[in-house]
Design goal:
globular; alpha/beta; binds S-adenosylmethionine; Rossmann fold; 7-stranded mixed beta sheet; single chain
């Protein structure tokens, strides 16, 4: 069952929110200065820490954070602006036509692991549809979020595997992988449990 994300934010229950941008994103941007540019979407952006980090180092980029939780976005918008970032209350699976083939980059972080695993092919289709033909998807995928208290089937975050990611993104014919590594920097407790992927859409 999917959580009521907005209710969680209203109740202040957001253990995923670490109060800072994802360390692997900051590290990648450091090593690839000015690479993120143009129109950039961050799906499931929550309180927008990654959105603001991207806008901060890419001042000419148009960074759009989307989320289905209006409460999260209100909190995101209350932070001091970093650059030209914006937020829209949208469902990734139901993006309006104006966002089709529209983005140069998509930054994925804890949206893929938050959605119902049965919708993962829909996720791949949605991000493929949102990207320009020469756009790119950069993302950090939470492979193993499990511990004693949280087991597979127990709700998000839902883990994945390298094989599953390759099958869904590449096996579907929608993407090819251009970069793949286990990040050397992570939030506390996630070291070695995440995979960074950079993907280019394939023509269908
Ligand atoms: C685990 S939280 C991660 C938030 C943020 N990326 C972070 O790391 O703090 C997952 C986020 O995805 C959002 N979300 C879930 N399903 C979504 C959908 N279909 N479209 C857009 N956002 C969605 C939730 O509201 C929530 O903010």
């Amino acid at each position: 069952m999917q959580p009521d994300w907005d209710e969680l934010y209203q109740d202040g229950i957001k253990p995923w929110d670490k109060g800072t941008a994802a360390p692997p994103l900051l590290d990648w941007m450091n090593r690839n200065p000015q690479k993120l540019s143009g129109k950039i979407m961050v799906p499931g952006c929550g309180l927008g820490h990654d959105v603001r980090a991207i806008a901060d180092v890419c001042p000419v980029a148009e960074v759009l954070g989307i989320d289905i939780s209006g409460t999260a976005l209100q909190e995101a918008a209350a932070f001091a602006k970093s650059g030209a970032e914006r937020y829209e209350e949208l469902d990734l699976f139901d993006l309006p036509g104006v966002h089709h083939q529209s983005f140069d980059w998509i930054w994925e972080h804890t949206c893929f692991c938050a959605i119902d695993p049965e919708r993962r092919d829909d996720y791949v289709e949605a991000v493929h549809r949102a990207l320009k033909p020469d756009g790119e998807l950069l993302g950090i995928f939470y492979l193993d979020p499990y511990d004693e208290d949280h087991q597979p089937g127990g709700g998000p975050p839902h883990g994945t595997s390298v094989a599953e990611l390759e099958s869904r993104f590449v096996g579907s014919g929608r993407f090819e992988i251009t970069e793949k590594y286990v990040p050397e920097v992570s939030y506390r407790g996630r070291a070695g449990l995440e995979l960074m992927l950079r993907l280019k859409p394939s023509a269908l």
